[in-house]
Specification:
Layout (H helix, E strand, L loop, with lengths): L1 E2 L2 E3 L11 H15 L17 H5 L2 H17 L2 E13 L2 E7 L13 H14 L5 E7 L3 E8 L2 H10 L11 H12 L7 E7 L10 H11 L1 E8 L4 E8 L5 E7 L4 H11 L3 E4 L2 H14 L3 E12 L1 H19 L8
Parallel strand pairs: 4-5, 4-7, 7-8, 8-11
Antiparallel strand pairs: 1-2, 2-3, 3-12, 5-6, 9-10
């Protein structure tokens, strides 16, 4: 029997509460025996002369009844249910490969493509607490920003720190993918995926994208590719200023969608195109649904016994009753 988070281990003891009316009747008969009535022709002269002790006397049997009721509740063993969840998760190893070439500073996303991609990726990470996730960045070359880890606070720190201009400019899609696959090659996880995000065309690097895709296929790595950028033209960096900033101008958006489709098809993944922030969020949500982590939850119950309170209450009531019947309400029989 459960009431809220309180459970009764022996609820059948509550049936003993049905004895309380019998105790009430016994007390009434006892009162009739020890306090006989006196016949008077009229009680007019006694009106208003009732003592407060007479009025308060029913407190004594009430204390007795409450003490018995408390003991009965204690015998039912009320206890608070404290639950522990033992979670066993078969996680997925995921590498995020993000393009950090200067074209990722294009302002068709707010504030730009790179910052929007970082924000959505961080939200994706927060939704997958049981997976190992790592981060690879690429432009003209590629390096691992964060290896596979379950410490997502560290991962988010590295993710928040990535920016354009830290490595040689260009778009080496093949190197970014190869680096990601290399990080997953020694993984013992049953599911290994790469989420590769870029806004351009492969134009540099010593590894061809389809070579990296073939290596991914042989290693059992599934690649989801995302092309980021609006249709037509966008305000993009066109030249670098002496102070380190960029001069922006309108330039055509060029994404090698055919290549990204081939990579995803070769590895059993899927290609997505994001032309705005909402589409990018939806893409990560779709990937989240496609790659579900297997989680097994075992609930372990612990209990905190509460019968001590009811026993102490009963003892207190009995002691209070004894004090009252031997002091204020003492009678001579």
């Amino acid at each position: 029997m459960t009431i809220g988070n309180i459970e009764l281990a022996s609820p059948w003891w509550l049936l003993a509460l049905l004895l309380l009316p019998i105790l009430v009747r016994w007390y009434q008969l006892r009162q009739a025996k020890y306090f006989p009535t006196v016949g008077l022709s009229t009680t007019q002269g006694l009106q208003g002369s009732t003592s407060w002790k007479v009025t308060a006397r029913p407190i004594v049997p009430l204390l007795h009844l409450l003490a018995v009721a408390s003991l009965i509740v204690a015998m039912a063993r009320p206890r608070a249910v404290l639950q522990n969840e033992d979670i066993t998760a078969e996680g997925i190893d995921i590498m995020l490969a993000i393009d950090v070439s200067t074209s990722m500073l294009a302002r068709d996303f707010a504030p730009d493509r790179l910052e929007a991609s970082k924000k959505v990726a961080a939200d994706f990470v927060s939704e997958r607490p049981y997976d190992r996730i790592g981060l690879v960045v690429f432009a003209g070359e590629s390096f691992t920003q964060c290896p596979l880890t379950t410490d997502h606070s560290v991962l988010n720190m590295f993710l928040g720190n990535i920016q354009c201009g830290l490595i040689e400019n260009g778009t080496a899609i093949g190197m970014g993918l190869a680096n990601s696959v290399g990080r997953l090659s020694k993984s013992k996880s049953k599911s290994k995926i790469v989420i590769l995000l870029t806004d351009g065309v492969n134009n540099t690097g010593h590894t061809q994208p389809m070579q990296a895709a073939d290596a991914a296929k042989k290693t059992g790595v599934k690649v989801y590719t995302i092309g980021v950028g609006t249709q037509g033209h966008a305000r993009q960096p066109t030249s670098k200023l002496p102070g380190g900033g960029f001069l922006y101008g309108w330039a055509p958006v060029e994404i090698d969608e055919y290549l990204l489709q081939q990579i995803s098809k070769e590895t059993g993944g899927q290609y997505f195109r994001a032309t705005d922030m909402e589409e990018l969020r939806n893409i990560y949500a779709q990937i989240d649904q496609l790659e579900k982590t297997e989680i097994e939850t075992t609930t372990i119950k612990r209990y905190k016994e509460l019968f001590h309170f009811w026993v102490m209450l009963a003892i207190f009531l009995v002691i209070l009753e004894l004090i009252l019947v031997n002091t204020i309400f003492k009678t001579i029989v």
